[in-house]
Amino acid sequence: MWLIGSMMILWVIRFVKGIIKLGLFALIILLGVYLVMQNQEILNSFK
After folding, report:
1. Region 12-32: what's the mean pLDDT?
2. Is pLDDT above 80 for 46?
3. For residues 39 and 44, what is the distance between their CA atoms, to the nearest angstrom?
4. Which residues of 18-29 are buried (b: 16+ CB within 10 A; e: fewer)?
5. Distance from C-alpha of 3 to C-alpha of 35, rounded to nearest angstrom
6. CA 35 – CA 30 distance, rounded (Å)
7. C-alpha to C-alpha distance for 29 and 35, rounded to whole angstroms
8. Interatomic CA distance for residues 7 and 46, integer angstroms
9. What is the C-alpha to C-alpha distance for residues 16 and 21, in angstroms, rounded to an integer?
10. Rounded to an integer, what distance in angstroms lies between the CA atom of residue 46 and that of residue 30?
11. Alpha carbon of 24 to those of 6, 13, 27: distances in Å?
């Protein structure tokens, strides 16, 4: 019973870590896209 419990806890921790990594990755991509959009507006104003 203890072994199953510890394995479940390890699986949950791994799952949560995966979700956090995925979330950070998505956030970085969104931030990059946002910055490009902002810079395009600035570049267009120079033309």
Report:
1. 98
2. no
3. 8
4. eeeeeeeeeeee
5. 48
6. 9
7. 10
8. 59
9. 9
10. 25
11. 27, 16, 5
Cα dist from 10 to 4, 31, 44, whole Å: 10, 31, 51
Tell me how crowded residue 36 is: count the other CB atoms within 10 A of its CB: 9
Question: Between vectors from CA 7 to CA 4 and to CA 20, what angle results, nearest 5°?
Answer: 145
d(CA 20, CA 23): 5
- DSSP secondary structure string for all residues of 1-47: -HHHHHHHHHHHHHHHHHHHHHHHHHHHHHHHHHHHHHHHHHHHHH-
**Residues in the chain, total:** 47
pLDDT number for residue 1: 81
